[in-house]
Amino acid sequence: MTARPGFDPASLVGRVVALDEEGALRTVEARVAAGDDPLAILADCQRGMRGVGENYESGKYFISGLIMAGEIFRETMEILGPRLAGEPSRGEAGTVLLCTVQGDIHDIGKNIVDMLLRSYGFMVHDLGVDVPAAEVARQALAVAPDVVGLSGLLTVAAESMKTTVAELRRDAPDLGHPFTIIIGGGQVNEKTREWTGADLWANDAARGVQLIREAVAAGRG
Ligand code: B12
Q1: Is the pLDDT of residue 1 over 50?
Q2: pLDDT of 218 above 70
Q3: How many A from CA of 56 to the centre of ligand 1?
Q4: Cα–Cα distances in Å, from 31 out to 28, 37, 38, 136?
Q5: Is the Cα dihedral 65, 52, 14, 208 positive or negative?
Q6: How far apart are CA 219 and CA 44, in angstroms?
Q7: Residue 91 Cα, ligand 1 centroid: separation in angstroms?
Q8: Mean of pLDDT values over 151-171
Q9: Three-class SS of residue 33?
Q10: Which of 11, 38, 104, 117 gives the lowest tally of CB atoms within 10 Å of its CB?
């Protein structure tokens, strides 16, 4: 029998794509027990989520499929979270203001970034989801962050990111010190960064946190 193209149904990616909740969680547990890197497990779940998204786009899955995928990811994070979280942060690495931009309620990726930043010693002010540009700018003035992180998964989120970046830049002189704006989410790329006027972009939490650490180090250097 020839292998069909697509995902290996026995792999974690394949199980997430198939919305096989029990199988996916069993695989996550087994990989954790085998000492696999939690970030590698997370990356496979993220690939699986993309597959679910493709099935939604092609009409194979409905909104219930997206909800189910969100639930599988939430349960996965319950297992991986404690392994990623590290010591409680005192904020010695810097301050990050984080949110999902207006019009978008996806927050799974943002929450992972939040958790990783804390594990690297950042103080994170997470404003939640669907946050209007004016509110981000108001909070930036209040907490004077080193970095503002804007998350968004919908195509329309790019528009909100652009408005938010513009508001932040307008208020920048009142902030008292330079800050970096990074955008993130599965659909963002260099083009989005350029169009929105952000400084950096990442579609992977580990890479995003690395860029944030470099930006803060450069700002303090
Ligand atoms: C789960 C899911 C949902 C869940 C979200 C639950 C939740 N609490 O977040 C629910 C069911 C609510 C949902 C709703 C909708 N969804 Co939805 N959803 C998804 C799905 C399947 C997975 C998203 C996810 O969590 N991925 C896993 C995480 C870990 O990945 P991530 O978010 O990319 O985050 C990583 C990186 O990007 C990065 N990152 C993320 N943010 C940031 C921020 C910073 C600063 C940095 C540095 C890094 C960073 O770090 C993370 C870890 O590595 C995606 C498919 C996909 N391709 O992603 C569709 C998808 C995003 N959804 C889609 C759609 C259309 C919708 C709805 C409009 C459906 C509808 N008709 O109602 C609504 C939108 C509601 C709204 N106003 O926001 C489309 C968007 C299409 C588009 N181009 O606009 C997608 C792409 C599916 C598809 N292919 O069609 N969805």
Answers
A1: no
A2: yes
A3: 12
A4: 5, 8, 9, 39
A5: negative
A6: 33
A7: 28
A8: 95
A9: helix
A10: 11
| Torsion 32-34-35-39 (CA) sign | negative
CA angle, residues 106, 112, 114, in degrees to nearest 5:
100
End-to-end CA separation in angstroms for the chain? 60
Q: Ligand 1 centroid vs 70 CA: distance in angstroms?
A: 9
pLDDT for 220 equals 67
DSSP 81-136: HHHHH-SPP-STTEEEEEEEBTT----HHHHHHHHHHHHTTEEEEE--SSB-HHHH
Structure-block tokens of residue 22: 């029990």
Residue with CA at minimum distance from ligand 1 atom 31: 109
Instruction: Compute, in angstroms, the gap from residue 178 CA to the centroid of ligand 1.
Output: 30
Q: Considering only CA atoms, which residue is closest to atom 25 of ligand 1? A: 108
Note if the pTM is more than 0.70. Answer: yes
Q: Which of 21, 46, 153 should be mutated for ligand 1, with most atoms under 8 A from CB?
A: 153
**Pairwise CA distance, residues 1 & 15, whole Å:** 21
- Identity of residue 169: R
Any idea what the Cα angle at residue 47 is, between residues 13 and 80, rounded to 5°?
Answer: 75
